[in-house]
């Protein structure tokens, strides 16, 4: 699995959920299928008059979610930017040729009310719920700098093994300290709640580097 394959899988899903934040700070989610995929970029169409377009222009941060029939979750997080005017027609024609239904929604020249956005610097998270233990992986594309997620075990670990017993996926191995396998971690926090020493903490806090 890699970032390119994840983009291909999103293409097979077809209709994706796009999450933004409106001007009042409330979350907004839209289903979007007017999407074109490049190996390291995602282009999509919307109308300039839509709130969705204004939210993208104002902030740009967006999350894109797809879920396959094989219980795979693919989440793309990045910043959308409007393509230059000189490139808009090219990408609009590409998207309309790949999604013929759009000609019914925006017939003839009415398509020119549209805007094309591109997400180029992004992170991708892959999460497979259809296997045991679950499997997850993430990648950074372009200049993206994804945040660490999940849990790690610090040197405060006393080796009692309660975290390992509590883990629904058996994703913790004994050691000094015990170690959580990030590719199998559910991010549920059961290990942190079970730890009597407070040694299990969210990644990105002050967990020891070698604990991951």
From TrEMBL:
Residues 149-174, 176-205 form the 4Fe-4S ferredoxin-type domain. The keyword Iron-sulfur applies. Keywords: 4Fe-4S, Iron, Iron-sulfur, Metal-binding. The keyword 4Fe-4S applies. Pfam families: Fer4_7 (PF12838), PNPOx_N (PF01243). Its cofactor is [4Fe-4S] cluster. This is Ferredoxin. It comes from Intestinimonas butyriciproducens.
């Amino acid at each position: 699995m890699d970032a390119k394959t994840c983009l291909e899988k999103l293409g097979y899903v077809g209709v994706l959920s796009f999450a933004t934040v409106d001007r009042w700070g409330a979350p907004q989610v839209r289903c979007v299928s007017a999407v074109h995929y490049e190996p390291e970029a995602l282009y999509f169409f919307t109308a300039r008059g839509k709130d969705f377009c204004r939210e993208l222009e104002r902030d740009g941060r967006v999350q894109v979610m797809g879920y396959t029939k094989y219980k795979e979750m693919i989440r793309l997080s990045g910043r959308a930017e409007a393509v230059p005017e000189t490139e808009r027609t090219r990408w609009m024609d590409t998207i309309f040729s790949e999604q013929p239904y759009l000609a019914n929604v925006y017939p003839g020249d009415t398509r020119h009310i549209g805007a094309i956005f591109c997400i180029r610097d992004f992170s991708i998270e892959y999460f497979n719920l259809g296997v045991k233990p679950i499997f997850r992986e993430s990648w950074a594309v372009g200049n993206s700098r994804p945040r660490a997620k999940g849990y790690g075990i610090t040197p405060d670990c006393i080796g009692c093994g309660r975290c390992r017993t509590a883990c629904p996926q058996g994703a913790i191995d004994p050691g000094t300290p015990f170690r959580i396998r990030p590719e199998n971690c559910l991010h549920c926090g059961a290990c942190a709640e079970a730890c009597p020493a407070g040694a299990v903490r969210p990644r990105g806090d002050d967990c020891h580097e070698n604990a991951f």
